[in-house]
Amino acid sequence: MARTNEDDGTANEPTSSRRAVLGLAAGTGLSAIAGCLNSTGGDGDGTTTQGDDLADKIVLQMEGGTMLDALESEAFGAFEEEFGTSVEVSLRSSQQSGYAKIQAGQAEVDFASVPPFTLYNGTKDDVWEPIDPDEVPNYESNVLDPLKNPVFDPGDSIHGIPHAYGTVGMAYNNNELDDPTSWSACWDSAYDGHVAPEGFGFIRVFTTALEMGMDPNDIGADSSYEEAIEKIWDRVAEQQELVVTNWTSGDEQARLFASKDAWVGEAWGNVIYGAVQDGNDHLSYTIPEEGAYGYTQNHALVKGISDKKRRTVLEFINFLLRDEILQPVTEKLGLPPSTSVTSEEIENLYDYDPQGGEGLKFPDVEYINEHNDEWSQRWESVRGN
């Protein structure tokens, strides 16, 4: 499987990173049995199109790291063996740079791996090709209902097909906290100097609204926006009195919680799961009873690709949503699948929602974009006090 670096066009050797950022900003081999796979989805749905109807190769834009490792080892080879199409990867240095190249028509790619904000922005900018659900039978039959037609995919059409989901939940030191269930633990004075929130304004608003019983996508619904947002910032300021660090990256949060400087705070479930696998047994993770920020990992088609490329990309997406493909992919990825396929390993993942996605609160990107400048400026003021 070929990888190309988008920045300079050079080929890259495979790399591995447990803590690759998989959303905001976060198994067993299957290739050996690829020839034995049938053409149906996990519950019998799906079709196979082969031969002249499919392209010889398709190109996926994404970052490297754990997600790429999982797809390479558990999906790409199996797809090529069954369908005769290779999946090549164009590596981007960041979501922002990759999206900018697609938007400018400078990326020779057919589809992209995108989180909620990029999916929303590309839909509004008319960068992603609409997808008819009938074109991806395993979307209708296998994908969890709360993950279909999310608020961050605007309009009546579908522009992204999810294959995994994650959360911004609560990490805690289980030697210091006894199974907390509420976000209020992040405001408990008993943990003064050991609280570690995520350091972005919109996340401070989002989680604080959840803790206060508000809808983070409709602040002030029961009063007024101005009154409610002031209450949120007052609550954020209270929390800042207890904070050790407001972290802003996956590596930083992992170091904070692993070092035991942070006892409680927001975290990405897959990062804390990786830290525990690395031997940090003092760490635990939960989705609080008020809910947690949720996101999906999606594939979106670049607008303007040929009909043959389109058919082939959709065939790959449908293939990825088969139970026997998605299970090992997500087990290696460390994020739960977008479908109901499960295993003991999946159910032990920290992001796993036993409610089938009902415990997740997805961001209304339009609402966040509307207020983000205001929130960012206010956050800098509150954090600086």
Write the layout of secondary structure elements.
Elements (H helix, E strand, L loop, with lengths): L2 E3 L51 E6 L3 H18 L2 E6 L3 H9 L7 E4 L1 H9 L12 H6 L18 E13 L27 H11 L13 H16 L9 H9 L5 E5 H9 L5 E4 L5 E10 L5 H14 L2 H11 L10 H4 L12 E2 L3 H20 L1
Parallel strand pairs: 1-3, 2-3, 2-4, 8-9
Antiparallel strand pairs: 4-8, 5-6, 5-7, 5-8
Helix pairs in contact: 1-10, 5-6, 5-12, 6-12
Please, could you describe this protein's structure?
This protein is an alpha/beta fold and 385 residues long. It folds into 2 domains: 57-165 and 295-358, 3-Layer(aba) Sandwich (D-Maltodextrin-Binding Protein, domain 2); 166-293 and 364-383, 3-Layer(aba) Sandwich (D-Maltodextrin-Binding Protein, domain 2), CATH 3.40.190. It has 12 helices and 9 strands. Strands 1, 2, 3, 4, 5, 6, 7, 8 and 9 form a 9-stranded mixed beta sheet that branches. Helix 1 (66-83) runs antiparallel to helix 10 (323-333). The longest helix is centred in the C-terminal third of the chain and has 20 residues, at 365-384. It is globular, with a radius of gyration of 21 Å. It starts with a strand and ends with a helix. Keywords: Periplasm, Signal, Transport. This is Extracellular solute-binding protein. Its main location: periplasm. InterPro entries: SBP, Sperm_putr-bd. It is found in: Periplasm.
